[in-house]
Amino acid sequence: MTEKELLKCSPAELTDMGICPTCFDRKHNGAIFGDNTNILIYKDNDIECFFANNPRAQGHMCISTIEHYHDMSEAPDYINEKIIRYAKAFMNIIRDVYGCVRVYMCTMCDGPANHYHIQLIPRYDFEKRGSGNFVKPRQEYIYDKEKLDRVKELINEYANK
Ligand SMILES: [Zn+2]
Predict the structure, then answer these.
(1) What does residue 13 show for φ and ψ, rounded to 5 degrees?
(2) Which of 32, 55, 65, 132 is most deeply packed, by most CB within 10 A?
(3) Which domain holds residue 3?
(4) Which conformational region is residue 139 in: left (phi greater than 0), alpha (psi within -120 to 50 degrees), or beta?
(5) pLDDT tens per residue, range 23-43
(6) Residues 132, 63 share a domain
(7) How far is it, in rounded angstroms, from Cα 50 to Cα 48?
(8) CA of 99 to the centre of ligand 1 (A)
(9) Separation of 24 CA from ligand 1 center, angstroms?
(10) What is the pTM of this model?
(11) How many CB atoms lie within 10 A of CB 24?
């Protein structure tokens, strides 16, 4: 298949052909997942942080590794430590900016070529406590420039400390 034909494939089809859709998307400037400027919060050489484009709650975000790791068990310790440190910072930031009560954290990576990632899912005061928050129905992402800019500003302050 030519590159041009591959560009018309879905993420699932690319995965089935042994091509990582995330890397393919990066290489082709968002050809698969589209322009990410409305969701991207932070990026460095190790991790990338972005809002889920099909969130389980507004403010639902992911911290993902740049390199491929099956999951936490395969990632180097410094990456795992960094992800936990950023998750802690983001929990406070998301609570402040989105006004949720708590932020839940989960990770599950189970494809042939993974970018190990964790998910941070807000729980709001109108929602029940408990594990049901991990499987709340997916919603449409609502782009809010003011909130996105504030989250970016706060995490950059943290990253540059
Ligand atoms: Zn990849």
Answers:
(1) -65, -40
(2) 65
(3) 1-35
(4) beta
(5) 999 899 888 888 899 999 999
(6) yes
(7) 7
(8) 33
(9) 7
(10) 0.92
(11) 20
Task: Give φ, ψ of 132 to 5 degrees.
Answer: -60, -25
Q: Return the percent helix, strand and coil in the chain, to nearest 5.
A: 35, 15, 45
Distance (angstroms) between ligand 1 centre and the Cα of 7 equals 15
130/12 Cα distance (integer angstroms): 31
- 130 alpha carbon – ligand 1 mean position (Å): 32
- CATH number reported for the structural domain that contains residue 113 in this entry: 3.30.428.10
User: Same domain for 62 and 129?
Assistant: yes
Residue 149 CA to ligand 1 center (angstroms) comes to 27
- Cα–ligand 1 centroid distance for 124 (angstroms): 33
Per-residue pLDDT reduced to its tens digit, 98-114: 999 999 999 998 877 88
- Please list the residues that pair with 47 across neighbouring strands: 65
